[in-house]
Amino acid sequence: MTQTLFNIRDRLALVTGSSRGLGNALARGLAHQGARVILHGRNLALVQEEARAIAQETGATVEAVSFDVTDAQATQQALEALIAQCGVPDILVNNAGLQRRAPFNEFTPSDWDALVATNLSSLFYVSQVITRAMGERGSGKVVNIGSVQSKLARETIAPYSATKGGVAMLTQGMAADLARFNIQVNCISPGYFKTEMNSALWQDPAFNQWVEKRTPAQRWGHFDELVGTLVYLCSDASSFVSGQNIFVDGGMTSVV
Ligand code: NDP
């Protein structure tokens, strides 16, 4: 039992928004553990290129799929075709996301809509198709990617924080509804990691200083530091863990 506790070898994992950034690192981490991985983004050529690179690096089977997660119909069609081709994923990581920043009074309705569609509605669209299929099979693991910003407010990101607060609560609600199908649903909430999404921030020395001061670990996170928590939540080791939100943030949300 203990030897296989964290084993995810040959499990099929779909990671949304894995063309770059944290999603790419998470998919790579799962592939290194022997999972079969499905990479995703909007640009199929880019996703295929990344899939080839990860397959070569890890020896894992890596597929590529592309669709816009904000388009409910396109999402459903792409996922149904994917299931027909590759089978029902054992693992779904809802990672695709977007950040837009502006003072609250200057936030545009179109930016609000884009945030809600990409960071929140997409989880509903993607998860519903996948968890229906997981439910028919009788098992599955869903991991939603939240943010420290669901717990900590900051100037200029109220709408982003609101979507991530929604992700946290959607996680709990999905966990409640899907438990009877033996599907565990959890959330990983990262602290600050340097990606394309926040490049304007980590190129700003003052913001760097703020992160280092505000984080008890006194630094930004390394991509690999998210992988262990994900593997745990995707493995049999977490079979009685559901509806939880794990902050991987160097201690940021545990202090004022
Ligand atoms: P990136 O901008 O580097 O990557 C975002 C990914 O999401 C890309 O693969 C992109 O694919 C995909 N994506 C965005 N919009 C869509 C869409 N409409 N349809 C399909 N795919 C889409 O961001 P990060 O890696 O930084 O963020 C990943 C997740 O982690 C997000 O949910 C974010 O909120 C969360 N997070 C990030 C933190 C950080 O410090 N970086 C901290 C806390 C949470 P493509 O553009 O190729 O289509």
TrEMBL record:
<dbReference type="Pfam" id="PF13561">
    <property type="entry name" value="adh_short_C2"/>
</dbReference>
<comment type="similarity">
    <text>Belongs to the short-chain dehydrogenases/reductases (SDR) family.</text>
</comment>
<dbReference type="InterPro" id="IPR002347">
    <property type="entry name" value="SDR_fam"/>
</dbReference>
<protein>
    <submittedName>
        <fullName>SDR family oxidoreductase</fullName>
    </submittedName>
</protein>
<dbReference type="InterPro" id="IPR057326">
    <property type="entry name" value="KR_dom"/>
</dbReference>
<dbReference type="InterPro" id="IPR020904">
    <property type="entry name" value="Sc_DH/Rdtase_CS"/>
</dbReference>
<dbReference type="InterPro" id="IPR036291">
    <property type="entry name" value="NAD(P)-bd_dom_sf"/>
</dbReference>
<dbReference type="GO" id="GO:0016616">
    <property type="term" value="F:oxidoreductase activity, acting on the CH-OH group of donors, NAD or NADP as acceptor"/>
</dbReference>
<feature type="domain" description="Ketoreductase">
    <location>
        <begin position="11"/>
        <end position="205"/>
    </location>
</feature>
